[in-house]
Specification:
heterodimer; A: mainly alpha; B: 121 residues; mainly alpha
Chain lengths: 151, 121
Amino acid sequence: MKKLEIILPALIIVFTLFVVGVGTFYYNYSMTVMRFPYFVGVVLIGLSAWRLAQAIEGKRLPGEPEDVQEPTTESMAEFTRTALWLVAILPAVWLLGYLAGIPLYLLAYFRAHGESWLMSVSLSLGALAVTYFVFIVFLRVNLPVMPLGFQ
Amino acid sequence: MILLAKYIARLTYLRGHILAPLLLAIIVLGTYASKNNPMDVVYVFVFGALGYLMKELNYSRAPLILGFVLTNAIESYLHISLRSFGPTFFMRPISLIIIGLLVLGLVWPSISRRLRRGRGA
């Protein structure tokens, strides 16, 4: 946790400097355009630097819990598994298209998490019905229904 | 919708591992549908990760959302104010009142803490 407490404000400072730098040196925006980003950037960098200094010194903000538990190997593995399952919807909809990808992703997710076939198939079919009738028929959204992002 | 509220509220009793993927599917569909831009779906996950990180490190997420919603308006009106009244636009009475309220909002938590401590002692 200590590492993350240092990394996040440091990342905010680097990201802000990068964005402001791109506007100034790459796009050569005038001072009129850049004054608002400069103002926000200075405030953001100032606050992040303050937070970074506090994190390095090990100080905590008022109301922040003192005993933050360090993640165990099991909790990290569980977190990684959950995160990967959530992110898996991206390749699923890209590889299979929205119409097939979403129900198949849901079916795989529910089965992998111990749900019965009946529950998994019904929820997946429900999602298929919502995707088709609500988004394609009713809202007329041009969803990529074919694999690899083709419409 | 209000009539259905009682039934919709029952959704909260669903187990997390049933609710999460269903919500995720709707979020992905809704995000893509808004502008038909696949990158928007990727941004959902980027900001989801950022939100998770902020939650874990006790950063407030509400100001980030407010910033996203209000930044366009703030920037536009800053330019309008600078053009109309010059760089000292914030010295006008209404600006001073708002700045005063903002400063009060910022320092109020520490003032009230000290007051409470003073009463307790």
